[in-house]
Amino acid sequence: MASSDYLLQLVRQALDDFDDKPLDVSVRRAVRIANLVGDTRHAIRLSLELRPPGGSRRSNGEISRMLMEDPSTWGSGTGPAEEALAQYIDDRKFTTDGDKDLVVAHSLAEIDFWEAELRELKESGERFDYRDDLASRERNGRIVAKTRHLTFALLCSWERRFGYSGINESIFGGYRAKVDKLLADGVPELLQQFSAVYRRLQEAAETSPDRDVAEELSQAITTCRRILKAVVDHVLPPQDQPSTTGHLLDDAHHRNRLFEFTKQAIESKSNNKLTDVMITGLYERFVAVDTMTNKAVHAAMAFETANLCALNTYIICGEIISLHALQGDASDVG
Fold first, then answer.
1. pLDDT in tens, 268-296
2. Which one, of 161, 121, 130, 143, lies nearest residue 39 by Cα?
3. pTM to 2 decimals?
């Protein structure tokens, strides 16, 4: 998925140009953004405003499925595509004098064309039935106004949403940058290994969600464990001597070393309230990720598990590195 910053840039460009560009331009931009964020219902709903009537039913269906985050829901009767079509019909439905329900199926471009054509004919002296002409212009005006309102409201909601998401991404991005730098300097192969496994899981989840991927998930979790250990090696390298409480601090006992590291942080004269907050629950969360097992076997669940593992690994490692930096800064001041 595109980053929040990139999506926010697209949204703000669409909003800034909203009153200066033809409506169908803004609608196309909104369809693109909705598609990028996986908002199938609105992607299809607005795309219907752009689609001219007629054409191959099969081809029209294929185009709609291209905009669906989960094409398997197509034809279910209750999926987002059906919801979008129902909303489109409701917004464009009108009743004739003979109490017959009809739907205006013209695209926005066609409505604009016919409105311009009628203006030219009127200017040339062509006579029209005032009542029919007024009813047609009122219907078309209502369609355009509804579409404009929906598009603008969606863009505004996305601007707020991605503005918040961008803040969250910047916080997580700070942790990720610290961890990536440490790994790139010390064990760069770990980043490459995890990226390769993660891509395989993602591809499997997208193409064969029911396929057994226990081996790939096991590799992803193992790589997360190695990342955790690499960070502990950085803040408290293996020791030949055990801790004062008798716990081994050698290479194999990295959890003991993390516990010892947090203990030293607590006992340090540099301890402050921020350090207290960072230490609370750190060891327990580390162990929880470090002891994850590959209980999920099919691709869809395995991919979610890998996401959870990676997210928590980066957050925990980022906290450890930040805590280590705080201690170093305090020592320099002292």
1. 655 556 555 656 676 677 677 667 666 65
2. 161
3. 0.55
